[in-house]
Amino acid sequence: MDKNRYSQRLKALFSEIERLAATPAGNDPTIRAELESVRTRLLALEAEFREDRHHAAPPEALPASREKEPARPTAPEILYDKDRVGFVYTDEKVEALQDVSINPVGMEQTLTTLLTASGQPIGEMQISQPDGRPLTPEERNLAQSVAQQVSLQIQNLRLLAATERARSEAEAATRRFMHEGWENYLDAIHHNERLGYAYDQVSVSPYVEKIPDNNGFQVSMDVMDEQIGAVYLKTDPARPLSRDEQVLVEAVARQISQQVENLRLLADASRARAEAEDVTRRMTRDGWRSFMDELPDAALSFSYDSNQVVPTPEAGLPRKADLSQPLMVNGEPIGELAILGGQSLSPEAVSLAASVAARASIQIETLRLTEELRKRAAELQELDRLKSAFLANMSHELRTPLNSILGFADVIQEGLDGPLTENMANDLQLIQKNGRHLLHLINDVLDMAKITAGRMNLNPEKFKVHDIFDEVINISSPLANEKSILLTTDPDSDEKVEVFADRTRISQVMINVVNNALKFTDKGQVFLNVEHQGENIVIRVQDTGVGIPPDKLETVFQEFTQVDTSSTRKAGGTGLGLPISRKLIEMHGGRMWAESTGIPGEGTRIIIELPLEARIIEPASKKIEEV
Question: At the top level of CATH, which class does the domain 458-626 belong to?
Answer without folding.
Answer: alpha beta
